[in-house]
Amino acid sequence: MPELPEVEALVQDLRGRLVGRAISRVDLTAFSALKTFDPPLHALHGTLVDDVTRHGKFLDIDASGVHLVIHLARAGWIRWRDEVPALPARPNSKNPLAARVVIDDPDLDVQPGLDITEAGTRKGLAIYVVRDPQEVEGVARLGPDPLSDDFTIEVLADILQREGRKQVKGVMRMQSIIAGIGNAYSDEILHAARMSPYKPASSIEGDELQTLYDAVRGTLGDAVRRSSGLAASELKGEKKTNLAVHGKAGEKCPVCGDVVREVSFADSSLQYCATCQTGGKPLADRRTSKFLK
Distance of alpha carbon 107 from its chain centroid, rounded? Predict the structure, then answer.
């Protein structure tokens, strides 16, 4: 799933490609992906792209005051194409294409564009056409952005105390609490902080609070810097290459050499290093045994 660093890199890449160019048309091929009806999709036709920004993990293309807001969900992605077919894209259940944004450039003999795709059978990709991004419920309820200047250590402390005995792993990835951090980077942040994913949020104070804050800013900031300047086609590989524990179950921890372990849930999993994060004590997998603290 694309998280804050990948979406930020997409913003930078698309801003350079789109700003000042006109949207010729938008072809919708997965009708369930469009979540709004007013303004209609064709309100984007003939508009000029003014900016590309991000709200948490939501991508926002501002075109003459009409906003095309995209949430890529678990398996969505955006691919730039130097040339798209002249004929409008058609619905095809075997094709991952959900929508295509066609760009009108009078200096070119062909039309470039964006393909918005979603792999797999579980469909969560969401496309919104709105006059204000705050009309999107998911955007309106976002918590603070962890890389903004307003996200101070005091803000993090207030969040942790407010969430009480909730596990810090769940707090870190809840978008209404902190925007942009998902399953992967919450694993990476907690590994960098040498902190158990099951640690109660309100128990994190003093030096541990500073360590966690530094891990949030450092892990995300480093990922953004590594991704900056990369094309959309390179971002997935960059992310996977630089993860320390997420998705690395059974491999060696790059810090201590212990095996990276996993806890599985109904529709997700977390990865961690017992030596680095839990004092050498493996966490119980909820599928097979009682919860261990």
Answer: 34
Predicted TM-score (pTM) of the model is: 0.91
User: What residues does CATH 3.20.190.10 cover in the chain?
Assistant: 4-140
What are the residue ranges of CATH 1.10.8.50 in the chain? 153-277
Q: For residues 33-66, b (16+ Cβ closer than 10 Å) or e, as one string? A: bbbeeeeebebbbebebbebbbbbbbbbbbbeeb
Topology annotation, domain 4-140: N-terminal domain of MutM-like DNA repair proteins (3.20.190)
User: Residue 12 to residues 64, 82, 109, 213, 250: CA-CA distances in angstroms?
Assistant: 19, 17, 25, 25, 35
Give residue for tokens 């996200």: 151
Q: Tell me the pLDDT tens digit for each residue of 8-65.
A: 999 999 999 999 999 999 999 999 999 999 999 999 999 999 999 999 999 999 999 9
Q: Which of 196-210, 216-230, 239-253 has the highest mean pLDDT?
A: 196-210
Coil, strand or helix at 27: strand
Q: What is the pLDDT of residue 290?
A: 47
Q: How far apart are the first and last CA of the chain?
A: 28
CATH number of 153-277: 1.10.8.50
